[in-house]
Amino acid sequence: MTDTSFLLDRRRFFAGAISVVASSQLGCSKPETVVAPVASERNDVPLRVLFVGENEDKDVILRGWGAVAEQPLQIEVVSLERSECGGMESAVLEGAKKADVVIYPLVLVGAARRGDAVVEMTTDDLSRLDSEIGPLLTAARNAAARYGGGTYALPLGCSLPALISEAEVESPSSWEAYDRLVAEQWDGAAAEPTAAGWAGTMFLWRSAGVKNWLFDRENLAPLINTEPYVEALDLMLRTHSRYKEKNRTPDQIWLAVSQGELQGGIGFPRRRSGGIQDLQLAALPGVTNLSKVMLDPFSPVISLSASCRQTGVSKRFIQWFCGGEGSVTVRSRVAGMSDLREDSFSTGALAEYDDWLAGQLQAPLTLPCLQLDHAADYLMVLDQQVVRALDGEVTPQAALDSVAARWNELTSDAGMETQIRAWRMAQGMRA
Q: How far is CA 265 from CA 165, 253, 278, in A?
């Protein structure tokens, strides 16, 4: 059998297997809006995809899908600007009304679910995906595929920051030890992600060991300006002052270390299609025995829109993108995406990082990102204030006091009870 005939036979099998699931299970939540069944079998009606990401990745997805399916795609791109993400939530909720499938950041899953923009996936659908393309790695399933006891999205990438170095070093056991490593062994020739849009997330990664995570569970009072967080930002500022290179993104740091411009630092590759880099990799300071993992809030996930008009082909597209034939190459070329299913890892240019990442994603304990209503606003406020502290404009305490005050305002605007339920669901509990 030729490769082409194999792909065609596989496609027909997926089409038959998936189309038997009733649309009321993983279909449109409002049956009256669904196009008649005959329309869902046509391959001249474009599958509408809302994609939050970079415009250059649109063509990669179009070519990849076109190689395995006859159904045309119509992709609408919403630009992902981490440092100016305040309007992203409304753009996704509005865009989902005109889409069959939505690809968007993890942090917006809660808002999409509460806004009835996406539908929950059934146990049968998830079991079939596990059978066909392999089960998700533990942390990817717990932190990205579960929300409020249900599954409303599937992860497409879960990059984690690694401690990277040109030469082998003893992995620091704490952030204090990392500070000494930067000062004494690397002489400041290092960096961590502190560019606008990344500084706040890096601060959260540094704070992952704090016992009480971000909010009081009872009244959602921010804990971000309490002593453990202030100490974490103070140490971040001290180490930041030692760096010869500042305001870098994770990908820029990865490249700089691999090219010998820096001796070490914290970073990860943006895409998996780059050249081979021989780097030493280790978990972040303080991470022992796969302790709690926090995924990047902007990790890409995929959902079926509640406004879908072609349920069968939408499911086939989701299955393909999550690990179907030919999708590994596509994900390797799209920013932020990676392999997340057991036994699905490639042996490509960045296989060493992907192997390390797979080990980290076996962590059974995860920390929720800010999956609240207006979550992007919470993140943007944190990022801006962390940048101000690192630039010396305000003290760490003053910066985090400002964050806490603004978070209280955002919570009040959205409704405290609404946000308390949202935060419970972000931690895997039902509302």
A: 6, 7, 14
Spacing of C-alpha 243 from chain mean position: 27
Note whether 55 and 107 are within 8 A (CB).
no
The rounded distance, in Å, linking the Cα atoms of 119 and 221 is: 30
Task: Tell me what pLDDT residue 321 has.
Answer: 95
Place of tokens 């998830």: 126
What's the pLDDT score for residue 325? 85
Tokens of 229: 């967080």
* Element (DSSP H or E) covering residue 186: none
Each residue of 73-92: b (16+ CB within 10 Å) or e? bebebbebebeebeebbebb
Nearest to 177 by CA among 165, 168, 185: 185
C-alpha span between 95 and 230 (Å, rounded): 38
**Strand, helix or coil for residue 264:** strand
Say if residues 384 and 187 touch (Cβ distance below 8 Å). Answer: no
Question: What is d(CA 57, CA 103) in angstroms, rounded to the nearest whole number?
Answer: 12
Return the pLDDT at 19.
40
- φ/ψ of 239, rounded to 5, equals -70, -40
Residue (of 132, 108, 125) closest to 311 by Cα position: 125
Name the pTM for this structure: 0.87
Q: Who contacts 11 (Cβ-Cβ below 8 Å, separation ≥6)? A: 68, 69, 316
Phi and psi at residue 202, in whole multiples of 5°? -60, -40
Give the integer Cα–Cα distance in Å for 94 and 75: 15
Contact yes or no for 250/266 (Cβ under 8 A): yes
Q: What is the pLDDT of residues 198-257, one digit of tens each?
A: 999 999 999 998 989 999 988 999 999 999 999 999 999 999 999 999 999 999 999 999
